[in-house]
Specification:
- This protein is an alpha/beta fold and 232 residues long.
- The chain has nine helices and eight strands.
- The protein starts with a helix and ends in a 10-residue tail after the last helix.
- The mean pLDDT is 95.
- Bound molecules: pyridoxal-5'-phosphate.
- The site of pyridoxal-5'-phosphate has 14 residues, from strand 8 and helix 9.
Length: 232
Amino acid sequence: MTIEEGLANVRKRIANAARECGRDPAEITLIAVTKTHPPEMMNEAIRLGVTDIGENKPQEVRDKFDKVLPVRWHLIGHLQTNKIKYIIDRCAMIHSVDSIKLMDEIDRLAVLHNKDIDILIQVNISGELSKSGIAPEELESLLEHAGALSKTHVKGLMTIAPKAEFGDPAIHFQNMKKLFDSVKSRKFENVEMRELSMGMSGDFEAAVKCGATMVRVGSAIFGARNYGQPSA
Ligand SMILES: *Cc1c(COP(=O)(O)O)cnc(C)c1O
């Protein structure tokens, strides 16, 4: 499978899933997840029309950024406060915010760099132990805290569903959509519930059918990742 074929296939499947539930495919942003892949592969995808890319490691964003054509960068993996400096000027959105401490530290750097940045709050909707993200009960306190930030803006929610062998991911996506809609109907300062980031190679069609506005797809576009090789 070439990148061109992988991309065309994923786009078609997103469009079909959207139409099946009466959604406009244009409402869904495809984030091509390029972790472990070299800049040349990323540039090929960008030449084929990819507008948004996702990386899970801040160091990889830092190391690849200058070798990649202009594109919107998303940090989708766990972020430690001491690594924010690698991405603050490079990423348009951070999907993996899971604490008030992290919100404050992102905002401190955003102010320092005079750069506005969008964030999503990562929710562990399934309660699975191994997954990062906050419990749904904690969401309100983080959204309340958004009002105290100046250059960091909450734009929605993100989740990672457990692998299909742990049950139908659609159940978790439906629960996320319910949570998203319930928050959307309320008013929090500096919070706009616009993006619902969910769905990966194994489950993005289910996520689209449950209301995802962003899907994060890697291996279905680029093939399997080789973690044994240096990443950049
Ligand atoms: C790697 C990764 C993805 C993409 O995974 P694939 O299964 O290759 O599509 C999506 N989201 C996050 C947070 C990831 O780390």
